[in-house]
DNA sequence: TATTGACCTTCCAGTCGCTGTAACCTTTAG
DNA sequence: CTAAAGGTTACAGCGACTGGAAGGTCAATA
């Protein structure tokens, strides 16, 4: 199939698919005589897998390793475990940071329409 | 004062200060005869203000508007209000997304050391 | 047959907020 | 005199795309 069909089936932008090939996440497909990329049905599965990983915010480098590990049936899945655990830890870290951020923003409250020299938000931003 | 003194006092990297000038967040300072940037004491306050905003994850473009608004005492602080409210909304949105992400990652659980063809994580990633 | 329009190709630039590096000049201390 | 520390510019890279330009290819229609 051509790239747009793969894009539709995998729900990944054709441009992004080319990008994945460029950075080595996706292996280069065969080319037709006109230079068009020609993909196999299995590529749909690979891309859907990649998309699910991206939805979990897993970095492309890690996804690359996950794809490689799948190609080697003798590999230990400790690698997989580690990547997911680290991703989880990172998400939890980000959550804690955002919670603090939210608190700080909320203490600024709103100052509803006065002039800037009396703006309570700006006041607090200058000397918190 | 020279840039490194400003950097120390404002707790912002000298490189970052030059970058802020480059993108128009900070106005260009006077130059000494040797070409060195020469800053006024007030610049410390401006940069501290900028740093506080950045700690709240406020984008540079928005900070730019906050700085401009402060220079104009007749401006309404509705602008300020809006920027902070949007920032808060965005942080809350990000938090909700991360919470979903965390859930998804946790359902993957760990598969502790089997071989990849039986890896429960990879299984779930292929068909969630 | 000519041409339109959809699709494909490559390459380059931009996003955001810095940070690293290189190459060079000036000042200060020993 | 020399070396270290600090200043200057310009350019590249990060991550994960996305947009655009400029051009080749293909199928259908006037």
Automatic annotation (TrEMBL), chains A, B:
One of its GO terms (molecular function) is DNA-binding transcription factor activity. Keywords: Coiled coil, DNA-binding, Transcription, Transcription regulation. PROSITE patterns: HTH_MERR_1, HTH_MERR_2. It comes from the Bacteria. Residues 84-111 form a coiled coil. The keyword NAD does not apply. Residues 1-69 form the HTH merR-type domain. This is MerR family transcriptional regulator. It comes from Pseudoalteromonas rubra.
């Amino acid at each position: 199939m051509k790239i747009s069909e793969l894009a539709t089936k995998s729900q990944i932008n054709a441009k992004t698919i080319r990008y994945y090939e460029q950075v080595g996440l996706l292996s280069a497909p065969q080319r037709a005589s006109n230079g068009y990329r020609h993909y196999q049905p299995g590529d749909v599965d690979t891309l859907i897998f990649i998309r699910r990983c991206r939805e979990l915010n897993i970095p492309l480098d890690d996804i690359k390793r996950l794809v490689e590990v799948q190609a080697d049936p003798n590999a230990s899945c400790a690698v997989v475990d580690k990547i997911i655990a680290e991703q989880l830890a990172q998400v939890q870290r980000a959550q804690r940071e955002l919670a603090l951020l939210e608190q700080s923003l909320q203490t600024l409250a709103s100052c509803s329409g006065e002039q800037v020299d009396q703006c309570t938000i700006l006041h607090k931003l200058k000397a918190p």
